[in-house]
Design goal:
This protein has about 375 residues and is mainly α. It contains 16 helices and no strands.
Length: about 375
């Protein structure tokens, strides 16, 4: 019943994150075709994906102002903008266009993503509920299902010019449900102390590290697992979509479980053990001899990556003053969300020189950085 209430309370962001998942699942499954159409090498594709960080960071910086300006129309406006940007891969026939396209797409998807999360943090305080994990489960479910469906479209012979417009129609229909008719901006309570004059940068930076390594591990797997399964392990065309599908569906299940775990164990402990699973999963992928073992590694990695981002968001929301919450989350995401693009770019660069197995091994090492970040926050909170 608590999950049903959580969905009812957060319907707008819930659907908004589902739209983000639909987009990324579609794009992840189409990466082999987009890469081939643009004539990009692994390194060039990685650099283009890194370009999305430019648009993403701009979106993070502007998010609080955009939220205030658009009010209850924020999420449907951003969702419709993403539908338009989603059609750009149709025209990606060169490396320069691919790079520019990813800058635009990075800005569009990051804007919807961060604003949905800012809404959720405000709703969590307003209603006294934990909302992050179940909302991010919606992202993972839509990501996994769209990757599975789009993989089927590829196997049936559909190309880029058919897949993206068709999935765009789905996004348009979903965007109607993101309208927040009764949204109210954050206001100061009369009996509440005024917000400190400076932001709590220690907590912002530590949570940013958690977000960075989580996004890095997640999107490295999202963007490159299809190529890994098809090229390195001999999978047939379209079978690579089982990689992002496995990632999305397993993350969905464990984000739903995270809704329960976080309430019982606390944010810090959940994030810490999630990091451990993330390291193990990426390590298994690096040494996988068969597609089945690779999918097991993807599943273990998904268990680890599932709850870090939503739980870290909730943790930061509790650590900062309510009037600082939106800007604190946006600043943490400015750094953290770059991992969403650094991961694929890093994989592309390393793969070009040493292969995808070595690349996933490097990802495992980088994900381990989440452990000292969590311990540092725990130590600082104990001193307060």
């Amino acid at each position: 019943m608590s999950m049903i209430k959580a969905i009812q309370v957060s319907r707008g962001p819930f659907v908004g994150l589902g739209i983000v998942g639909l987009y990324w699942g579609t794009f992840a499954a189409m990466v082999p075709d987009v890469k081939a159409q643009a004539g990009a090498s692994d390194a060039q594709l990685g650099a283009a994906l890194m370009g999305a960080a430019i648009g993403g960071m701009a979106a993070m910086f502007l998010a609080p102002k955009i939220s205030d300006a658009l009010g209850k129309y924020l999420l449907p406006t951003l969702a419709c903008a993403l539908v338009v940007l989603m059609q750009l891969p149709i025209f990606a026939h060169s490396i320069p266009f691919l790079f520019g396209m990813m800058i635009a797409l990075g800005g569009g998807v990051a804007s919807l993503d961060i604003n949905a999360n800012m809404r959720l943090s405000q709703l969590e305080e307003r209603h006294g509920l934990h909302l992050m994990n179940i909302n991010h489960a919606m992202f993972s479910l839509c990501f996994g299902l769209s990757a599975l469906v789009v993989g089927g479209m590829r196997r049936s012979g559909m190309d880029i010019a058919q897949v993206f417009p068709l999935m765009g129609v789905v996004l348009v229909l979903a965007s109607v449900l993101t309208w927040e008719k009764n949204w109210q901006p954050v206001s100061r309570d009369a009996d509440q102390a005024p917000a400190p004059t400076t932001l709590p940068w220690f907590y912002i930076l530590m949570v940013a590290v958690m977000l960075f390594v989580s996004f890095l591990g997640e999107n490295a797997t999202e963007s490159w697992s299809a190529l890994f399964l098809e090229r390195e392990l001999g999978g047939a065309a379209g079978h690579g979509s089982f990689g992002p599908t496995t990632l999305g569906l397993v993350m969905c299940v464990f984000r739903l479980l995270g809704q329960v775990f976080t309430e019982k164990l606390g944010e810090e402990r959940v994030v810490l053990w999630s990091g451990v699973f993330g390291v193990i999963g990426s390590g298994v992928m690096a040494v996988a001899p068969t597609q089945a073992v690779a999918l097991i590694g993807i599943g273990i990695s998904a268990i680890g990556m599932a709850v870090i981002v939503p739980t870290a968001n909730s943790l930061l929301g509790k650590l900062v003053h309510r009037e600082h919450r939106a800007i604190a989350i946006s600043r943490a995401w400015m750094f953290g969300f770059t991992g969403f693009f650094v991961g694929p770019a890093l994989i592309g660069f390393i793969s070009e020189h040493w292969g995808l197995r070595v690349a996933f091994g490097v990802v495992a090492v980088m994900v381990a950085a989440i452990i000292p970040a969590v311990l540092a926050v725990k130590h600082r909170r104990a001193e307060r």
